Task: inverse folding
């Protein structure tokens, strides 16, 4: 089954086992209805820049209110290894800096 990389998907994104552990720190959630139009546009550009084979992104709202979007990409270093690509976004999708306590 091909991963769903659509930023407007109604499916729960980030349901992989490795993401469940960190969900106790900041909940992961589906994008539709949670991201602003500017954030959805930024995520679309982010996904377009990822290499082929990227897994669906996960999204977390950090304590400061900014959104962390992350996607895992299979690594060339070995089987079952992944690189994580991510962006931090403010309310309109602009780049944001983490605040104390966010990460």
Result:
């Amino acid at each position: 089954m091909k991963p769903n990389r659509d930023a407007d998907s109604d499916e729960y994104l980030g349901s992989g086992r490795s993401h469940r552990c960190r969900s106790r720190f900041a909940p992961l959630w589906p994008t539709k209805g949670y991201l602003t139009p500017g954030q959805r546009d930024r995520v679309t550009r982010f996904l377009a820049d990822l290499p082929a084979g990227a897994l669906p992104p996960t999204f977390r709202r950090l304590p400061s209110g900014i959104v962390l979007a992350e996607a895992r990409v299979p690594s060339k270093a070995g089987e079952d290894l992944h690189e994580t690509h991510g962006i931090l976004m403010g309310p309109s999708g602009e780049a944001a800096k983490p605040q104390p306590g966010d990460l």
About this structure: The chain has a mean pLDDT of 78. The chain is about 15% helix and 20% strand. The first strand starts at residue 58 and ends at 61.
